[in-house]
Amino acid sequence: xxxxxxxxxxxxxxxxxxxxxxxxxxxxxxxxxxxxxxxxxxxxxxxxxxxxxxxxxxxxxxxxxxxxxxxxxxxxxxxxxxxxxxxxxxxxxxxxxxxxxxxxxxxxxxxxxxxxxxxxxxxxxxxxxxxxxxxxxxxxxxxxxxxxxxxxxxxxxx
Length: 158
Prior knowledge:
Helices cover 33% and strands 38% of the residues. The protein is of the alpha+beta class.
């Protein structure tokens, strides 16, 4: 009887892990597909020669930010709207870096953990979205304008 209980518990544990893996893969599939479509579109229009990273940035309109180098070897970000729409470009040499955006966003605040720093497109232009957890375990969003490094918007202590 003891062996049956061990077998059933082992089987249920295996089943739970397998189900978690399936849910995670299925949950990430739409993001992966949208990112790949954006990368293909940027490469087809020859805006970037090499892609370093791509991720979804969601605001009122979802877009994919594709970062890479152009044919001249210069670092560039291309904002690809979901579906059809006009793509916008940002030469990274004309913008502040992610590290600088984090420093501005966290200036004077105690951050327990930075969750991410993403470049995206808002109505006022390209912004860095810095998301972090503060010492009180509260979620914070700070948006930094990529052009000049000033704070654009912040949502604190959620």
